[in-house]
Amino acid sequence: MSAQFENRRSANRGNLEINEPALTSRPVVQAWMGENDSWGHWADDTPLVAVRHPKNFDWSGICMYQTALVTGASSGIGESFARILAARGADLVVVARRTERLAALASELTHEFNIRVEVLAADLGRPEGIAKVCARLADPANPVDLVVNNAGAPGTSAPLHECEAEDEELTTVVNSLAPLRLMHAVLPGMVARGRGGIVNVVSSAALLPYFLTSASYGASKAYLLSLSEAVAMQVKPHGVRVTAVLPGYVRTEMTEDTEDVPNFLWIPKEKIVGDALKALTAGRSMVVPGAFYRVVDVMFRLMPRPLARVLAKLLV
Predict the structure, then answer these.
(1) Is pLDDT of 163 > 90?
(2) What 3-state class would DSSP assign to 191?
(3) What is the pTM of this model?
(4) Could you give the CA distance from residue 243 to residue 228 in angstroms, rounded to a whole number?
(5) Residues with Cβ < 8 Å from 207, sequence gap 6 or more?
(6) N or C: which end of the chain has fewer CB within 10 A?
């Protein structure tokens, strides 16, 4: 196959040698990774690019997608996704309710990384906000290669019978319905192109049969986990990858009032993003960052449900 690439300019990007017909700065949209070499193509479907890499090459610094849409990008995990993807060369569509924060983030990332950043202000707790983002994802003239469903609602802090129904509904809409609608909007284009990726930010609460602060929060995240795993199996034959990432305690605006949590339970946002993107690249449908949370995942999957309820009540 190397004869197809003779007389094409070669360049080294880190430890990666890339032979390509034109620019070396464009991100590889998709690559098929072998033991010592890989093959991929650019987003505009120009000829294949030959990628030579050492055995067990670390792909964590290489962006596999040209354009990424990130919800909840104005702070927390979503902002970390936006920053890390921008550093890897991806153009961005950043989504959140707070326009001023998005505009400031877009300006900073555009200046620092020389990428394109589109600001899309939308409230994913409202039908019109969901419809606005779905319309952008379904636009065939501006395809999105990667969707990060990160926006979330924390739920109430009281038992269901003491809460307002509207508050519980909002949790379910943002955490479950919005990701469903966004995936439904973007997947037809991804399947038609034969490539694409989706990261759904779930929660370790999805593993627990009992979540003290909000029954709807844990249930909505469990739904998103199940949905992610099912859709991952459906679209894998079409070259599209779906990964659910299950973070534990993360220092964000949603958890700033959380007290009495041991330090070892807190997971850095950057680790969550890195683990999620690495799992997506590897084609894994689920990843649980942090050794403690991986043990919890295994425990709750294997133990009888009555015992799991008792243990979950002790943990939370």
Answers:
(1) no
(2) helix
(3) 0.78
(4) 7
(5) 222, 246, 296, 297, 300, 301
(6) N
